[in-house]
Specification:
Number of strands: 26
CATH class: Mainly Beta
CATH topology: Neuraminidase
Order of helices and strands: EEEEEEEEEEEEEEEEEEEEEEEEEE
Helix content: under 10%
Largest sheet: 5 strands, mixed
CATH architecture: 6 Propeller
Shape: globular
Length: 339
């Protein structure tokens, strides 16, 4: 196992990080109450069903949705109909998809990341990860898998792991700004990585962003300025590339360009949902621009569990909602295109 010079155990202030280092700021301007990031509670399942999948789903675009009850629902993306369930999880959280349509599912409670071929009922490959896998992303240039680890519990922070070609032992990076819980990670089309870690033990509860340039081997703390002057990031559920900009999912969607420094572009406001969780952006290929997005609500808050579709980048009112009884506090979403 390789550990970078960035160091899983090297704790320092943001001022001591490399040239991109920056953090701090006052509390965010908040219009509605937000929950502090916490270690996910163990999933409680009254009944553990069996995995199943309809015939012919491999020829369809599919939407994968993780649930608090330990199951992953599989829907036909365009028809919104349930066509399968994957049931071999303890507490599935974030998901990601590679260019071949393979879906990677981070199982926090089981300390595993499982790879499923498009439309398959059994995993192709299983990664053991003892740091609490929470989110993931695939580098479109190399096929490397990045895993954002929340940490084994509430009191111990996580780390960021890179699996070369999604196999073997990981390269491990820790949090240098603070000892934090990594929640989300993403890649742009160039192979640059952006990740976020939240929940400091000093009471600030703000989030820090970490940047790993393509072909680089040093992760640095990077300042991502908020859309308003007084702003601290936390509860960042997804970091995605829409084909042109970085998209940071923190209840609304905030778009940025990053060229050494992060530059704020605009905000996409979504309506018709409760508290937005993770999102997935529909793109016909890694080089295409997003045309739709799908997001979940109901994981952190009471209310009707929903999977909601919007036009992208227009946002605004939803164009469809899945509110079936098959959902149980949905969290992660991933879109796997037919091959």
């Amino acid at each position: 196992m390789r550990i970078s010079g960035f160091g899983r155990y090297a704790l320092s202030s943001c001022a001591a990080a490399a040239t991109l280092a920056a953090c701090g700021g006052s509390q965010p301007l908040i219009d509605a109450p937000r929950a502090m990031p916490q270690a996910p509670a163990a999933a409680v399942r009254a009944y553990r069903g069996r995995s199943w999948m309809d015939v012919g789903v491999k020829d369809r675009d599919l939407l994968y949705v993780t649930n608090q009850n330990g199951e992953v629902n599989v829907y036909r993306y365009w028809q919104h109909t349930l066509v399968g369930v994957l049931a071999d999880f303890e507490q599935p959280m974030g998901e990601c998809v590679d260019a071949s349509g393979n879906v990677y599912i981070a199982d926090y409670q089981a300390n595993k990341v499982e790879e499923y071929a498009h439309g398959a009922m059994k995993p192709t490959y299983v990664i053991s990860d003892n740091y609490g896998p929470y989110g993931c992303a695939i580098d479109p240039k190399t096929g490397n898998l990045a895993v954002a680890n929340f940490g084994p519990n509430y009191y111990k922070g996580g780390n960021l792991e890179i699996y070369v070609h999604a196999r073997g032992k990981p390269i491990m990076y820790g949090a240098t700004c603070y000892d934090s819980h990594f929640m989300s990670v993403g890649y742009d089309k160039y192979g640059n990585l952006l990740s976020e870690a939240s929940f400091h033990y000093d009471g600030s509860y703000s989030g820090d962003f970490y940047y790993l340039p393509a072909k680089g081997n040093t992760v640095s703390c990077i300042d991502v300025p908020g859309p308003q002057s007084s702003w601290n990031w936390y509860d960042v559920f997804s970091i995605l590339w829409d084909g042109k900009y970085w998209v940071i999912d923190s209840y609304d969607l905030y778009r940025y360009s990053i060229n050494i420094k992060a530059q704020y572009i605009d905000t996409i406001t979504l309506s018709g949902e409760g508290y937005l969780g993770p999102i997935a952006i529909y793109r016909k290929s890694h080089n295409a621009y997003g045309t739709q997005l799908v997001g979940t609500s109901g994981y952190n808050y009471s209310g009707t569990p929903e999977v909601t579709y919007w036009n992208y980048p227009a946002g605004g009112d939803p164009i469809f909602q899945i509110t079936s009884k098959d959902l149980d506090k949905p969290y992660g979403v991933a879109i796997s295109l037919k091959q």
